[in-house]
Design brief:
homodimer; alpha/beta; 12 strands
Chain lengths: 313, 313
Amino acid sequence: VSRRYRLAVLIEDADRARVWLEALRRAVPDWQVDDGRRVAAADQVDFVVLWGRAEGLSRFTHLRAILSLGAGVDHVLRDPDLPREVPLIRMVDPGLACGMVEYVSCHVLRHHLGAPSLERSQREQRWTTVTPQLAHERTVGIMGLGAMGSACATRLTQFGFQVVGWSRTRKSLAGVTVHAGRHELPAFLARSEILVCLLPLTEDTRDILDAGLCARLPRGAAIINAARGEHLVEDDLLAALDAGQISGATLDVFRVEPLPQGHPFWQHPCISVTPHVASLTRPGSGAQSIVRSISSLLAGESPPGLVNQEAGY
Amino acid sequence: VSRRYRLAVLIEDADRARVWLEALRRAVPDWQVDDGRRVAAADQVDFVVLWGRAEGLSRFTHLRAILSLGAGVDHVLRDPDLPREVPLIRMVDPGLACGMVEYVSCHVLRHHLGAPSLERSQREQRWTTVTPQLAHERTVGIMGLGAMGSACATRLTQFGFQVVGWSRTRKSLAGVTVHAGRHELPAFLARSEILVCLLPLTEDTRDILDAGLCARLPRGAAIINAARGEHLVEDDLLAALDAGQISGATLDVFRVEPLPQGHPFWQHPCISVTPHVASLTRPGSGAQSIVRSISSLLAGESPPGLVNQEAGY
């Protein structure tokens, strides 16, 4: 990469914008990296690095690509300011998948070991001896087998868990029983004692975690949603928890974030709320990943994370 | 194994005794397996399978071996009824290590991801955005590198954690920085942001988790004790938590079990209490393990788990 390319960072939050400006300037010291909110000659910018909404993007008239700092681009694609003809690349950062593997492993193990019920016993000072099942006696279902879902599924097989996966198109993954398409969803759900949602948000997957889905899971199943709040029909989850069909849920994402004060999830005894921390793009490795994507694009290749705007991810 | 050997199961709890009688009869249908609490002709019994105290053991005068159902044999060795000349074999069950790996991974990840603090935020309905460190930026220290400690250390390296280990005699373990002996303990502790105790209980290790040890850990370290309650000086832990030197603890074992009502651990906001469930011997795989040990002993070999009564484990 010889030419002096121009990058603009378009992030609303000033602190976050500064962190990314610094990280990118360190990663490509010979390029010009500007704050996109107040850049001069926007028409000469080659690449925009974007977090959140695309407001102001229309000023950048000669872009070669737009790079999103998140793994999910549903909100970017919904934005009327997004120029459809410019390649959109979402973050495929090894650090992003590492964080997700840590989060999902932690919370799958928590449900597997009955930790929520042991935590209630502690609050009541009750010594309850139980013999938890071993991982090889437990089936975990992963919805979505992209970079994150595949990495999580593989780690869980290392614990001995039976792992089943489900995705739109059929994937192949060592040690994982794979289901594909809507017609195979019931068979997948029937086996998933712990269900992990890592799907992209599309019109097909919005509201997929609903009453019908809960009813098809084994009684007492647990649900972990680390994808998007819009995947989950909140009232359906609350009803399934009340009915005992679902025993517990761990939720990292919500329809409204931050989760509003007084929302019933906060104080529900069977719901763990985490503040959208399952998988965060780290500036250091994230900047490297952006540079790799741009280099690959300039070399005429199709970089990992290039968004299929039809499919929506 | 051709002769019709005689086994006696010596377990105080009647339910647990019945479960093990059934499991062993299934495992060796051609041997005679009796309840040791009411066996006739105790002097003709070849092997005793023991859980808990050894009371009544002196009646078995012609034993070839005693097989303990637990991985820890400190309480058996303290028992005056234990015949010192009979080989004592402790449980080395793959299921036992699997359960421990699941427990330790779950609780290391919980501390690593700041789950205890996120749980407090949830109770206060506070949305606290944090960027947790990734596993490769975190060092976990494992005290005790026997079957359990080694299995846990290896699994943690798969997450990318920096893993350091400490044991009485020097071990070698791929991907793990190993320390040995008392003089290397300070160097090991100085690196351990999350400390996991999986030591055998001996006169050398009793009370090892004390004020001096806490002071040598990095400030804000977490402690997980899944070994024996007697490893931990309870008041020292409480003081180190009050001082902020230790940020949290997960305890599965206690000096008195069940943990008595009103004990300060139950309601401490930084302590997770679990009721001695980290690693339980499962009758199915445990019975197989006992049969393997006996066969190995009869073949003149030294079975895994043969206790060195001098060393105490």
